Amino acid sequence: MTANVGTIDRLFRIVLGVILIALPVISEFAIFDSIAATVISVIAGIIMIGTAALRFCPIYRIFGLRTCRT
């Protein structure tokens, strides 16, 4: 597994992941009254944080993208 996620991309993914996990808990948006929306948001947040931690994004690999310098 070769790193394909750069530093700025990692920071963006971490912030977005934390927001996606926290949003259903602290917000009062009507969409999060649905369990499905809450689960999807939390899973997407976990995936974002996971790809940032591993510095590897499978979708980037499929499309041949890299945001890191090495």
From TrEMBL:
It comes from the Bacteria. Keywords: Membrane, Transmembrane, Transmembrane helix. It holds the Pfam family YgaP-like_TM. Residues 1-69 form the Inner membrane protein YgaP-like transmembrane domain. The keyword Membrane applies. The chain crosses the membrane at residues 12-32, 38-57. This is Inner membrane protein YgaP-like transmembrane domain-containing protein. It comes from Yoonia tamlensis. The lineage of its organism: Bacteria, Pseudomonadati, Pseudomonadota, Alphaproteobacteria, Rhodobacterales.
